[in-house]
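Q: Sequence in, structure out?
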Amino acid sequence: DEKTFEYLKGRKHAPSGAAWDRAVEYWKSVASDPDASYDDVVRFDGHDIAPTVTWGINPGQAISIKDKVPRPEDGETEAERAAIREALEYMQLTPGAPIEGTPVNVAFIGSCTNGRLSDFREVARYLRGKKVAPSVRALAVPGSMQVAREAEAEGLDAIFREAGFEWRQPGCSMCLAMNPDKLIGRELCASSSNRNFKGRQGSPTGRTVLMSPVMVAAAAVTGRIADAREVFGI
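A: Exactly. Output:
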């Protein structure tokens, strides 16, 4: 919550003065009751969570970068097994094979999900001095005009361009195949967007693998799905 308040304070359209104080007081009040009970409580240590990528045709079909592509028999029900078979057939992945190392054709950083100024700052930290693999088309698309202006004012666009990314106008772009930003044939895209349904990025047979912006950058410079921790020494 404090991170959100810090981000909003002083921005255009945000309340100010006493109105800001009242807004924060209200926002803080929107919380669970102190004596609320839950069916379950799950705690995670973020440091223990490896980078995650999708392997299938919906966002829930995801695994750790170090995991292997599921086999149909891994499903607990016939419906789950059928869903795995359908996804494997579309994605043309080998069941039981590592997802890491899968070649990529396109790398897309952007969309409303991961096109924030903080995303471009983070990627630029690791992208500086690197080059996009010759086999990859890489696109960087700010999530809004405001993000684009701020990123360009900081010189982030120059870092992306120098690395070999196309620095595009803000908008939806390859998230849903806007304008010419689309896959061709069975191309595979490492994408920071949030949907990987069949045909989502323009081609009826195009394949989308969702991952974080830094993971997309790692795929762009290596030409394959890769562990950003190893590529950039994180």
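The CA atoms of residues 39 and 143 lie 37 Å apart.
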